[in-house]
Amino acid sequence: MVGTVSTYRQVIALTGPLLPLVSFLARLPVAMSQFGSFLLVAQTSGSLATAGTVGGALSIGQVLFGPVLGWLADRHGQRRVVLAAAAVNAVATAALVAGALTHLATVPLAAIGALTGASVPLIGPLARTRSVALAHRAKSGESVVGAVHALEGTLDEVSFVFGPALVGLAALLAHPAVALAGAAGLVAVFGTAYALHPTAAVTGGYPRTESGGGPPARDRLPGSRVRPPGVVHAVRGSLALQGAMFGACQAGITALTIRLGVPDQAAVVYSAMGVVSAVVGISLGALPARFGLRLRWRVATGAALVLSVPLLFTDSLWPLYAVVTVLGAAYAPHLITAFALTERAVEPARLSTAMAFAASCLVAGQATALVVCGCLAETYGPAGAFAVAVGAAALCLVLALVTKVPAARTHTAGVSIPGPRTGSAPVTDGSGAAYAGR
Q1: Does the pLDDT of residue 320 top 60, yes or no?
Q2: With contact defined as beta carbons under 8 Å apart, do 15 and 131 qualify?
């Protein structure tokens, strides 16, 4: 326990105490916008179909343009890209609120939703990239890098618990428009604060080279490949399946609580799963190094399969709470391990792109499953949706078992991390304290 606390202290020493807080508050709008837009449009238009169309357009925008923003961050640096994306996203979110309140037609409202999704500033994936860059620049050990992934994964989990909860609370006390307007304010303030934080200097971007971008050839390992290795593609598939599990569970939980006459419990049940997931995620920092990423991937996906099977036989509220809460213990370990595998296999010059692509796969799987499982739940009941979750978990396990995972990094972690563009001066917080370089 003492060693774990010490490791996390090293992580905070790298990032500074404010960066995790700022990045967490900047992530909340992502978790709020999907649910908030659906509630707002459903209430103002009186049509679930319209709400689904706008929500779907928002997801499509995020899935298609997330990797583009990641690529731009790799090329031009996080600061400029996040500043621009946060500004556009804040304006687009505010426009979505205004359009819904003025009963804008479905097509233009969906177009605004797509712009909102396309401009999501990707704080989660980019924060992972930045914190890993800080760790490598300080020549930290793998235990610290692992703790970075655990902390970032936990912040994601907590944001996706509190985000919908804030939307639900605002809708209950006032109006869904208040929640979405709040999301616009959060992304404007804290997205900008994240972009301007001094640690952005370690992700200053790589200038274009004759080979098409990335670090100079002298900084690459002999024989290293520009194209991501097979494990990266397998991990993206695994994350898409994880997203499908999320979407299937959301649809199944909603269908069962409606059948039981307690629809308001759906968000609470889903939040309980997220809380347990976050707690288990932060505890991963205590795992010793001998529990490698390949073993963690297999254990996490195996646990997800075993723990999801009882969903098929759950037909009352309290057993649903119990099953879903326990299932949450398998989710964070899988997500954290998947992003850690991506970081291990991808060149630093392309890490933002890879992290964004991985996050887009997760969103795509979730959005697709929500649509499919909603139809299955209407036809076959909650078990129809839950069966998709079990099937996705089984496929995740198969991927983990058959994929060859490198025993070590496929690149040199430290050589390609750019320092501040102004020279070799350390990154400071403005008060003289230096981050990740001393």
Answers
A1: yes
A2: yes
Distance of CA 164 to the CA centre of its chain: 15
Position 116: which residue type?
T
Task: Assign a CATH topology to domain 228-406.
Answer: Growth Hormone; Chain: A; (1.20.1250)
CB 348 within 8 A of CB 145: no
Superfamily of domain 18-206: MFS general substrate transporter like domains (1.20.1250.20)
Q: Is the pLDDT of residue 419 over 70?
A: no
DSSP state, 177? H
Distance CA 314, CA 291 (A): 33
The one-letter code for the residue type at 326 is: V
Identical topology for domains 18-206 and 228-406:
yes
CA dihedral 386, 392, 397, 402 (to 10 degrees): 160
Token pair listed for 278: 């976050």
Q: Which residues of 125-140 are buried (b: 16+ CB within 10 A; e: fewer)?
A: bbbbbbbbbbbbbbeb
Dig out the tokens for 54 from the structure.
């706008």
**pLDDT > 60? residue 379:** yes
Residue 436 has pLDDT above 50, yes or no: no
Identity (one letter) of the amino acid at 258? Answer: I
Question: Where does the pLDDT of residue 286 fall: very low under 50, low under 70, confident under 90, or very high at 90 and above?
Answer: confident
Integer Cα distance of 330 and 271 in angstroms: 15
Q: Kindly indicate the confidence band of residue 438, based on its pLDDT and cuts at 50, 70 and 90.
A: very low
Q: pTM for the full model?
A: 0.83
For 77-110, write each residue's pLDDT tens digit. 999 999 999 999 999 999 999 999 999 999 999 9
Domain boundaries, the chain: 18-206, 228-406
- Whole-number Å distance between alpha carbons of 350 and 174: 43
Cβ neighbours of residue 89 closer than 8 Å, sequence gap 6 or more: 29, 116, 119, 120, 121, 184, 187, 191
